[in-house]
Amino acid sequence: MSLLINKIVFISDDIFKVRIDSALRKLGIIDITCNSDRMEIGLRKEDVDLQIDYPDDLDYLPDAVEEESRFQTSYYESNIQTIRSYIGENLELIKEALKQIE
Q1: Cα Rg of the chain (Å, integer)
Q2: What is the torsion angle, in degrees rounded to the nearest 10, for the CA atoms of residue 87, residue 69, residue 28 and residue 2?
Q3: Contact in structure between 81 and 88 (CB atoms under 8 Å)
Q4: Predicted TM-score (pTM) of this structure
Q5: Does residue 101 contact residue 14 with C-beta atoms inside 8 Å?
Q6: I need a surface site. Which of 65, 78, 85, 90 has the fewest CB within 10 A?
Q7: Cβ count near 23 (within 10 Å)
Q8: pLDDT in tens, 36-71
Q9: Torsional sign, CA 88, 94, 32, 22
């Protein structure tokens, strides 16, 4: 297991997790797990986890997270924006980690 700037934790050769902060924990997010195909956001208060297929251009990943959050959860808009912002803030680290597992 290795760390990338203490925000990304590789749990195997092809899977990593993005560390979550207290704001996301308060929303009921358990974890953010990524593989080469998609990102999964574990939700405590929902029936299923959020599954987001990566867009062709990873710069649009925060938009994809926002869209899928609206579609797959009953979260309020402010909560969806909190999740989107967190992914946006960590986008470069996520992109770098994806390069390492491809």
Answers
A1: 13
A2: -30
A3: no
A4: 0.90
A5: yes
A6: 78
A7: 13
A8: 999 999 999 777 899 999 999 999 999 999 999 999
A9: negative
Q: Token digits for 50?
A: 């959020």
d(CA 50, CA 66): 11
Closest-CA residue to 64 (of 33, 40, 35): 40
Q: Tell the residue number behind the tokens 């990102």, with chain if given.
A: 39
Structure tokens at 12: 């195997």
Task: Label residue 57 exposed, middle or buried (CB < 10 Å: 0-12, 13-18, 19+).
Answer: exposed
Strand order in the sheet with 8-10: 2-4, 8-10, 16-18, 29-34, 38-43, 50-53
Question: What token pair was written down for 98?
Answer: 């994806």
Inter-CA distances, 28 with 33, 42, 46, 77, 101, Å: 15, 8, 9, 15, 28
Do the beta carbons of residue 86 and residue 26 sit within 8 Å?
A: no
